[in-house]
Design the sequence.
């Protein structure tokens, strides 16, 4: 073959490689934009929490009237899903992802403390679930447990789930682990400060094991029944 | 495991995209030549023998012969020969009728396969040019003139036509139409590169001396038209494509028919490629050796690899969904979730797959443009992509077991 023919092979290779690099670049740019979106949401939540904490400090007991249920951010749940999706995309060892996960864990603890304070002072009764998981491949059931908890949160908005990556090298998580004596096999769950339970629990088992969840489920079932039996007039 | 599989996907994607880019570069380089070719008409009118091999074609052969008789070519220069290859239906009567009314030549022999029918016709041909037309195809009136003008080039040893699907009606046929259109583009571009590796059964023409020099057709795993082109490439004989010589071929209506046809083609390619393996990656055989043969061989497997990855991923997601459903004790799986743009995040593979499909679509439109057809009609290439692995798989399976496939 003449030299000019080989040039075409090289040219086609260069163009194809350029297309590949561009596709990689676009995909990475989108992922980076998603991480930035997460960071921005976290900043907003952080600000909200700080504001609520300050309100509590300023107003003491009276704060219950001024801080509504909206104090506790609904965005925490959707943020967790977005983080885990991004983690799946970019890899759990991606430094940006790790950074955001630590930030998220910190916000969770702050939100958890705030909800405890509100429970204490204002008599609210949220169900808080601390969930310790691992995605290092040593917890095959963690993905499904996470799914059960997400489903529970969707069913009952009063349920607040705080998930912690057991293996994330972060002092706050270490403290939580020590405080709740998490030692057994993952997944580990702590419902409303009760004793930690270990191993996978499906949705029904989980509901039946906790009186608070059971009460929620019962109330929800009654409400649903009411809605269908109550005449419209 | 899934990650490994998903990373493996880049190799077939890269090679497919590379081939598409290569073809498009070639096409745009040679666009002006195509215009000149289209405007030109033949300088000479050589004598031509047109052979129609028939085996139980009583329902279609009349249509084929009518289109041949309507060809715009001097009658004294065109000999039409029908070879009855031991038909057991009414083919003989139809041929006899045409012989009496229109003076076509009819040879009758014992059944021996299409290649034997062609060889009989070729061995008795006295003309300068010889060609054949399958008895399930028809030709446009100017097709022969369009073919013959390419023989003005003294180096051209064979000229192939532009094959189109005849009146596609069903979904399956429309899918095939898109594929034939893409093939028109491929044939033309590969012709510019001198890299054609098939001289299709319907309406390919040769200088008669080619058969004297390279020998007659062989059985060649029921795909004698591929084998002959490979034999010519090995001898460095020039094959060119006349994209304005339209031939219309009947396409299978049923999936089973299509499956059998394509499995035969794919098997034939694999087996012939094995017989002509010395062509692979050898620059002395030009682009046919470096580009066409390796790529066609690779395509068979890459399509299988891509689809097995897609299927594995699909099964994997279904299993995950099932296990999630069981984790929530089969309660309502689909709680209302508002759409979030966050999750629209195409991975590199998806972007590349879309691009590869887009390029394939450009090739189809390019083929339609060459064939002077309406550019955008109902083409469903994606669906075709999903069907292809069936016969690719069937052919590879037969090839591995070295089982031969009947030519119909």
Sequence:
């Amino acid at each position: 073959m003449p030299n000019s023919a080989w040039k075409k092979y090289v040219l086609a290779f260069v163009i194809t490689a350029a297309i590949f690099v561009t596709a990689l670049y676009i995909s990475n740019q989108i992922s980076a934009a998603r991480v930035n979106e997460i960071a921005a949401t976290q900043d907003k939540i952080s600000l909200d929490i700080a504001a609520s904490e300050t309100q509590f400090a300023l107003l003491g007991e009276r704060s219950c009237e001024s801080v509504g249920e909206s104090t506790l951010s609904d965005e925490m749940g959707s943020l967790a899903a977005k983080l885990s999706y991004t983690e799946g995309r970019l890899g759990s060892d991606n430094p940006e992802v790790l950074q955001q996960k630590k930030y998220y864990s910190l916000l969770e603890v702050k939100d958890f403390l705030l909800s405890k304070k509100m429970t204490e002072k204002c008599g609210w009764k949220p169900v808080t679930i601390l969930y310790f998981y691992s995605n290092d491949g040593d917890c095959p059931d963690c993905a499904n447990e996470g799914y059960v908890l997400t489903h529970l949160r969707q069913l009952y908005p009063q349920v607040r789930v705080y998930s912690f990556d057991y293996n994330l090298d972060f002092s706050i998580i270490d403290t939580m682990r020590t405080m709740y004596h998490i030692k057994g096999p993952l997944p580990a769950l702590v419902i409303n400060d009760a004793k930690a339970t270990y191993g996978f629990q499906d949705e029904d088992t989980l509901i039946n094991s906790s009186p608070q969840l059971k009460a929620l489920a019962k109330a929800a079932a009654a409400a649903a029944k009411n809605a269908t039996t109550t005449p419209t007039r | 495991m899934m990650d490994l599989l998903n990373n493996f996907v880049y190799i077939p994607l890269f090679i497919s995209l590379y081939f598409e880019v290569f073809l498009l570069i070639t096409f745009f380089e040679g666009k002006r030549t195509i215009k000149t070719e289209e405007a030109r008409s033949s300088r000479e009118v050589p004598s031509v023998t047109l052979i129609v091999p028939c085996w139980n074609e009583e329902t279609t052969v009349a249509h084929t012969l009518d289109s041949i008789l309507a060809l715009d070519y001097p009658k004294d220069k065109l000999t039409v020969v029908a070879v009855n290859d031991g038909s057991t239906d009414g083919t003989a009567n139809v041929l006899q009728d045409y012989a009496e009314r229109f003076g076509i030549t009819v040879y009758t022999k014992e059944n021996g396969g299409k290649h034997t029918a062609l060889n009989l016709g070729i061995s008795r041909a006295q003309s300068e040019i010889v060609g054949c037309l399958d008895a399930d195809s028809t030709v446009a009136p100017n097709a022969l003139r369009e073919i013959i003008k390419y023989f003005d080039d003294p180096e051209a040893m064979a000229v192939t036509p532009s094959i189109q699907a005849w009146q596609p009606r069903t979904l399956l046929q429309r899918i095939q139409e898109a594929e034939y259109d893409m093939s028109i583009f491929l044939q033309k571009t590969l012709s510019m590169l001198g890299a054609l590796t098939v001289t299709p059964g319907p309406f390919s023409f040769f200088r008669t001396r080619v058969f004297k020099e390279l020998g007659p057709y062989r059985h060649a795993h029921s795909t004698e038209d591929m084998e002959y082109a490979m034999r010519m490439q090995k001898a460095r004989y020039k094959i060119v494509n006349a994209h304005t010589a339209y031939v219309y071929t009947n396409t299978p209506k049923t999936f089973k028919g299509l499956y059998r046809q394509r499995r035969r083609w794919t098997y034939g390619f694999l087996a012939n490629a094995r017989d002509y393996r010395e062509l692979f990656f050898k620059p002395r055989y030009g682009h046919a050796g470096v580009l066409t043969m390796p790529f066609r061989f690779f395509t068979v497997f890459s399509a299988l690899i891509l689809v097995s990855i897609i299927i594995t991923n699909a099964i994997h997601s279904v299993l995950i969904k099932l296990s999630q459903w069981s984790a929530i004790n089969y309660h309502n799986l689909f709680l209302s979730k508002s759409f979030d743009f966050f999750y629209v995040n195409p991975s590199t593979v998806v972007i590349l797959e879309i691009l590869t499909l887009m390029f394939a679509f450009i090739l189809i439109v390019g083929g339609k443009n060459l064939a002077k057809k309406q550019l955008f009609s109902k083409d469903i290439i994606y669906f075709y992509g999903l069907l292809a692995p069936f016969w690719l798989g069937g052919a590879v399976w037969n090839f591995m077991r070295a089982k031969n496939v009947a030519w119909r």
About this structure: The CA atoms of residues 244 and 371 of chain B lie 7 Å apart. Residues 403-408 of chain B have pLDDT under 50 and may be disordered. The first strand of chain B starts at residue 48 and ends at 54. The first helix of chain B runs from residue 2 to 8.
